[in-house]
Amino acid sequence: MSAIPGPPGHPLLGVVPAFERDMLGALEESFAAYGDCVAYRFGPGWGGIGFTAVAAYHPDDVARALLDSAVFGRDTVGFTVIRESIGDGLLTLTGETWRRHRRIVQQLFTARRVAGYGALMAAEAERTVAATTGHGDVVDLHDLMQRYTLRVVGRALFGDDIDAVVGELQELVGLLGETSTARRLQLFRLPLSLPTPRNRTLRDVRRRLFAIADAVLDGCAHDADPAAENLLTRLRGARDEDTGAGLSDQEIRDEVLGFLLAGHETTAGALTFTLHELGRRPDIQDRIAAAGPEADALVRASVMEGMRLYPPAHTTERVTLVDTEIAGYPVRAGTQVLISPWVTHRHPAFWPDAHRFDPSRFVGTHERPRYAYLPFGGGARACVGMQFALQEATVVLKALLARFRVDTVGHDMTLTPLLTLRPDGPVNARLTARVPAGVR
Ligand code: HEM
Predict the structure, then answer these.
(1) What is the pLDDT of residues 240-272, one digit of tens each?
(2) Per-residue pLDDT averaged across 159-168, rounded?
(3) Which residues contact 74 (CB under 8 A, 6 or more apart)?
(4) Backbone angles phi, psi at 400, to 5 degrees
(5) Domains along the chain?
(6) CA–CA distance from 199 to each of 195, 211, 213, 290 (Å)?
(7) Ligand 1 atom nearest to 269, measured from its CA
């Protein structure tokens, strides 16, 4: 494995300081310097302290890492840290228990079911539009989109709005991201039960998140109408087709928390980043506002392109279960493997002029390997909410752009790669009402 090239890093800490400073920048630089397969040393690399992770950036290697589950497993450092914080939902489970949950949960996200949420998404999109006057107000796109996605996932899950907890959830998601990302980069991870300041924060976040899930579920437990059509009643009623078994109350709670977390910050990010870029492209906005099939294709392509440049799930991990190879280099069993859509989405062999926002990359057909683009992962563990997210995103973009012209205020966003990619501060844009046809 020593043959794999990689940045020399700090003598004792390896890449940890560079990752703490700017992880995505460090990944991009090392990809430019060393190519499709890069070794990253965490810690000194001697005395059994720390470990070396290997990145697979080429789409062919990404495909193997995501598709070949006999070679690439999921019990990684990162997922263990997430699991400590948010429990045993679909995102963090492995093995047979994951398979059982997946069989049940995916019944909730079939194309027909997702289409059934169109009306509530449209209603929430209208509400979002109505919240702005259009007199040139400057709004924080991230806040606006987080509220929209939380309300959509809340209503889809529980059939009710979750406005009472939106503010607290927004705060907790930020804290969870910061503390668990820092914990992931620690070389010595003290057990969560030890009362270090960070562990205390993480435990407090965990307690408050579970309290929110319990409170919301309690409210729904007494819901008189078991026939109500929402994700929760379906989750409670769903049975594994193979065994006939359903999920226990605790399993349902962990899944619900997972949906609340995995299901809003990612989509809110995708929308924020897309609108930020569209806010500099009035020409594309005009074509979307014109409505019709071309506009529909373009709005979808804009979201896809937004997620190419700014993939909300910027990096994921696998661990090798057996000795294998990546890009021709031998890699030992037990190695952490980094997969980074952020880097692969900028691979110059597949994305010419990669830093330019250009939705036409996703209009019509283009020759490129399947895993040159992977905002939703792939293989058996691909995002279960993909169709839901895409529909949710296109509905609100169409509604907003039909009514307003969006002008980005300020220059570049600065982003922090926490569990998902988050803007560092407000992402401001000016929303001005479009002049309705015929009114001049
Ligand atoms: C733009 C929005 C979204 C993005 C970019 C996204 C991205 C991803 C990615 C990359 C994975 C796979 C991670 C890996 O393999 O390591 C994943 C898994 C998952 N996502 Fe999403 N997601 C989005 C929206 C949603 C929504 C709306 C939901 C649910 C309401 C959701 C629920 C999940 C769950 C439960 C998993 C775990 C699936 C499994 O391991 O079986 N996601 N997501």
Answers:
(1) 888 888 888 889 999 988 888 888 899 999 999
(2) 78
(3) 94, 98, 318, 319, 381
(4) -65, -45
(5) 16-433 (1.10.630.10)
(6) 6, 18, 21, 52
(7) 1
Pocket test residue of 266, 339, 388, 390 for ligand 1, highest count of atoms within 8 A of CB: 266
Pairing of strands 316-320, 72-73: antiparallel
CA of 433 to the centre of ligand 1 (A): 34
- Per-residue pLDDT of 338-364, as tens digits, reads 999 999 999 999 999 999 999 999 999
Q: How confident is the model at residue 181 (pLDDT cuts 50, 70, 90)?
A: confident
Structure-block tokens of residue 93 = 């489970």
Q: Of 375, 419, 421, which is closest to residue 185 (Cα–Cα)?
A: 419
The residues that bridge with 338 in the sheet, in sequence order, are 55, 317
Residue 236's Cβ-count burial label (10 Å; 0-12, 13-18, 19+) is middle
Dihedral sign of CA atoms 148, 416, 98, 60 in order: positive
- Residue 438 binned pLDDT confidence (cut-offs 50, 70, 90): very low
114 lines ligand 1 (CB under 6 A): no
Q: Going by CA atoms, what residue is nearest to atom 16 of ligand 1?
A: 316
Q: Which ligand 1 atom sits nearest the alpha carbon of residue 89?
A: 35
